[in-house]
Amino acid sequence: MNTPTIQRAPAVFIPHGGGPMPLLNEPSQQAIADFLRQLPQHYERPKAILVISAHWEAPRPTLLGADTPPLLFDYYGFPAETYDYRYPATNPADIRARVTECLTNAGLPVDTDATRGYDHGVFVPLILMHPQADIPVLQLSLIEGLDPASHIALGQALSALRDDGVMILGSGFSFHNMSVMRNGNDQARAINSEFHDWLAQTLTNPELTPEQRIAKMIDWDQAPGARFSHPREEHLLPLPVCLAAAGGHAGEILFDDTVLGYRTFCVIWRD
């Protein structure tokens, strides 16, 4: 009997919005909310989703360890309803073991946290993308120190999971300068756009080799407007993880819109 072929799952980098605001019909977040709702139309249903969120850093790559993780409401000052969300996805032990195997085979250490829950970089976009919570969801931390080369290595180690049908979902923001997002000016927006022009060229230009693309992302802070766009890079680093999980190949920009007046991206790698 022939074994059914597993569709290779994509790697996708998304903007997850500000706290729970994409779930609140907040006008400034409407473009993100509308996009995330229709994003699953762009890929086959995965076997599982592994999320690398900007909102979890650990000394070593760390996996959530609970079979059904709770939610971690890591935001403050929002309406009471935003602390009552539920997202009862499963976090299967066999897929966790496969993630651990991939990291270990690549020479990367891995820890497990059995008490932490899904942070808002996980449950907010997934409530919009897959509201039935019927796809297993795993979460893996960023690595403290935020070294881009270490996150490239992390993505390379995770690449084999895509052949198992596990989608790699990087959840962050391609622009994250909170001090200017609500009171920016034309000059700030011009710098933001300059950085995104560089990102678009780096991520989608077919004339770049995978090695060149990865080298550019390792040195991302040399790009025009880089440190203005990311004074601290935790919201950007899920992007190089996804790029490396896609072998450094060119991606496709699915979303290029403004949030609070500033450009932000979604990028997908299908191959």
Notes on the protein architecture:
This protein is an alpha/beta fold. Helices cover 32% and strands 19% of the residues. It has a six-stranded mixed β-sheet with strand order 5-2-6-1-8-7, sandwiched between helices. Strands 3-4 form a two-stranded parallel ribbon. β3, α2 and β4 (111-113) form a beta-alpha-beta unit. The longest helix has 19 residues, at 186-204. The chain is globular, with a radius of gyration of 18 Å. The relative contact order is 0.21. The model has no long low-confidence stretch (mean pLDDT 95).
- Record the strand order, biggest sheet: 5-2-6-1-8-7
Q: Would you list the SSEs in sequence order as H and E?
A: EHEEHEHEHEHHHHHEE
Q: What class would the helix/strand composition place it in?
A: alpha/beta
Low-confidence stretches: none
Indicate the percent of residues in helices. 25-40%
- Shape designation: globular
Radius of gyration based on Cα positions: 18 Å
Distance between the termini: 27 Å
What kind of sheet is the major sheet? 6 strands, mixed
Number of helices: 9
**What's the pLDDT, averaged over the residues?**
95
Task: Throw out a few tags for this protein.
alpha/beta, six-stranded mixed sheet, two-stranded parallel sheet, 9 helices, 8 strands
Secondary structure: elements and pairs:
Blueprint: E1 11-15, H1 30-38, E2 48-58, E3 62-64, H2 93-105, E4 111-113, H3 120-129, E5 137-143, H4 148-158, E6 166-172, H5 178-181, H6 186-204, H7 210-218, H8 226-229, H9 238-245, E7 252-259, E8 262-269
Parallel strand pairs: 1-6, 2-5, 2-6, 3-4
Antiparallel strand pairs: 1-8, 7-8
Helix pairs in contact: 1-3, 4-9
